[in-house]
Amino acid sequence: MLRSVLNLGLYELVLVFKFTDVESETIRQIDIYKNFVLEYGSKVMVKSHCRKVLAYQIKGFDLGIVLHLRFEADYHLIKELNTCIERDPLVIRCISRKLR
Asked: Tens of pLDDT along 43-73?
């Protein structure tokens, strides 16, 4: 489903996942969110993903996998993405912001 180019804004999304030792699980999670954004006809850039020691416990976890995405989106994509994130049991924290 392609959206109007005029309504697109640049967004940044930081997701913190529960830590897992299985590399394929981490790659699968990155692909899920990357492909979700690409499905809507948007450009996406995975800036980084890495294992981090958290400054404080989040939902009982001291260690997490941080995924940092930048992408173009409109309000409808952000709404759908937030719904998907809320339903994902592996996401322990999500921060998103509009860049322009």
From this structure: 888 887 788 888 989 988 899 989 898 988 8
Are the CB atoms for 76 and 9 separated by under 8 Å?
no
The residue to which tokens 């939902």 are assigned: 59
**Domains delineated in the chain:** 5-98 (3.30.70.60)
Phi, psi of 98 (to 5 degrees): -90, 130
Contact 16, 58 (CB under 8 A): yes
- Please give the order of strands across the beta sheet that includes 91-98: 44-58, 61-73, 9-18, 91-98
Q: How far is CA 4 from CA 16, 68, 82, in A?
A: 30, 25, 20
Token couple for 84 = 């998907």
pTM, whole model, 2 decimals? 0.80
